[in-house]
Amino acid sequence: MPLTSLLLPPSANFWPQLARILLRQWRESEPNSHAGDFSTVRVLVPNFCHAQLLKSALAAELNRTFVPPRITTLQAWLKMLPPDPDEVPISSGTERMMLLYAELRQHAWLKKLFAARRNVDLLPLAQTLMTLFDELSEALLPAMHIEPNAAEEKWQAALEQLPLPARNILSDESQLVWSLWKTQLGSNDSTAACLARMMRLAALADAPLVWISPGKPDALHDAFLRAYGERQAVQQVRLDWHADVIAPVFAKAWPEMPEQDEHQPPAYVDETHITRPDGVSLHACGSLEEEAQHAAQTIIGWLQQGKSCIAIIAQDRVVARRIRALLERATIYVSDETGWKLSTTRTAAAIAALLDVVSMRAETVALLDLLKSPCVFSDRPDKPDRVMEIEHALRRYNVLGGWDAALNVLKNAPESRQLIELIAAQASTLTGRKTLSEWGEATDNALRALAMRDALETDEAGVQVVSLLDMLIHDCGDTHHAFSFAEWRAFLSLQLESTPYVPEDFDRRVVMLQLNGAQLRTFDAVIMVGADADHLPSQLNETLFFADAVRRELGLATKEMRQRMQMRDFAELLHANPHVVLSYQSYRNGEPNAVSTWVERLQLTLERAGAEILPMHSIDIARQVLKTLPVRMPSPAAPQLLPRKLSASAYNSLVACPYQFFATRMLGLASLDELSDMPEKRDYGDWLHAILRTYHETVRDHKIAVTAREELLRDISQKIFDDALAQSAAALGYYARWQKVIPAYLEWANEREAGGWRFVFGEQRFEKSLNWDGGQITLHGCIDRIDEHEDGSRAVLDYKTRNVQALRDKIKETEDHQLAFYGMLSDLPVAAAHFVALEVTKDKTGDAEAKNFIEWQAMLEKQIVDNVRAIATGAPLRASGIERICVFCEVRGLCRKGAW
Hints:
6-stranded mixed β-sheet; 36 helices; single chain; 900 residues; alpha/beta
């Protein structure tokens, strides 16, 4: 049967023109066509959206009811083909890739050849090779179907296209790739199976076929059409790119774009016929935000004008995402046909967080990221409280990672500890070496145990993630190679990265698509974002292993061919749409950013022909006048938030700045402790408190002789610091610092004991209630040490990792009420108080005594009652802290001091 071609120029009338031609042909050849029945004809279109466009064009041309032809896509038609009992099961793409990877990792010389440091570095290589193998199969299998040696002949012909020196030094990689492709060919290859099915369809040809495509069919499709054409008439319909049918300005600006016979010079274009393309305009923006706002406002304006089919060509995906967000603010929801990588969704992030925790062995940041995922423990109503409790504990004790360390700091929080135990139990199952199917099942079991699977199945993207995992378990069931956790993690990440997520459509007025997604489609208006030199044309992936000369001879797409296809897509966009705005950023990060060279060439062609250049598009964005409000010092009043308990540090905060007290103690906005892999001064203080408590209790209980005390203190110190050094070697500096203090501290402590003082207790918590008419507050705190004199008087001591002079200056300032506060807390009267210096000055240490301590306690008690009573009656809490306080204040950004 005849195989004919119909070429139509790119234009907005492509479908109406095609409908008229097809109807005329069908009326002449199909007996039932005059009755409006065209079901005896089969039409194959690139996508289902094109099927609707053809039906609409036929309906508009006929203007009456009719039975349309059988319009579908080739893939949908293949799926309707009944199964062949003789067909060999086809290996999935993922299974083939992992089988190839398993083979590649066996050879150390391959890792050296491709500079792979680890096995998992070969995974992207395996993916690239599979893509190239599919290209080779699609290009060469049809010829091999007729002549088995055709591929080898083409390979030799391709080598002959290279100069002799280049042929002799053809890379080892290229020869290896060719050999690998030949060895993996088989009946279970997906391309071979697809070709076999297409040949079965051709053998069952029962109706004339119309093949519609933007360009020429590739080798695989061409073989199908020729086989089909042996039984039924086949008509190929595609765009005509000859210079005499496209706009002269495009043919002149882009001479490499028009179709021409080989070895023929470019067609002559008469410059007198060059005119500015209608409806095309430019817009240069100064920033990403300006470009997004301009595009969003342009689209809103088009919708207000009654346009109902608008396209955003997303050359710059960052700008496109910002446009989408701005439009959603205006309740305009964009239908994204291109989607985005599944790996960028929050549900995929939850899977990644789980794998990170396993890989990093409960590293704290990764563990907190997992716990804070909305997918984890979604069935626990108390999850926010438990996660907060876990985070406070991990940060307070500076736990950097490790299951045992995390569980140890939660020993007094059984419910929170249970969550960590559940995660740890599942992490223990994700170890060792397993097949891909076993890894998938283990991961799925972990998702179920952590209540993640149910949460994923309620999310649109989560459903796709779960389906992907189920598919991997099913497709890789016959793969018996064992893989490590690192390989499973890399493989799963690769699948999430290469799988697109396309949300469901519910508003088709505005669609977002790539440039090639606009093929054979017409819109009311189009805006392209990213029409700059970096994004238009799109950066093409490198064609690895084979030079373009070899690729051309093998029938593979070369860089030049792919560039030409993209240029034709751009020209079709300008041909087929009445309004096109090309938007770009003229400046990026403060540097000039050039418009696309394609646009520059178009503008230059217009100027040389004396025609008008592309106009600049502009749109007015309505300005909003905001009423200015002067910023004043905050002075909130919140008697209902008065704390029931008050610590020494909290009262010092109230004295230093009432607003700081309001924000941190009444609103609870204190920042969390920072995790650090380096010990801090706070840790040093904690270690010394533990050392000195143990030392003095031992001396008190066992009556240790003075001569044996230094050895005792050093033994206790070594035990405490050994534990610290096991966590961080950086603690060694603090250990050396403390060893210098030990002799001076012992000398001071022994002198104090000789003066009649004895250690009573240390690190003990106390509470005391203060009452007044109509109110009460409880003071609480932990006293470092209480000593008692021979005469029965008591003294409170507080350790400080500072020198004596600094502590004496601190007492003179009378701004720190810690000692008096602790004196009030004591269950027995305290007559004296001292700051004890744990730093040496000239090999000496000592203490700084508080003067008039009894009077100070009485005065402080009155101040506390007066201040707390004032807060309870609604006194304003002003941000009155001095600069010295504000420099280190955690809530300075909240009070905005400096703006008032």
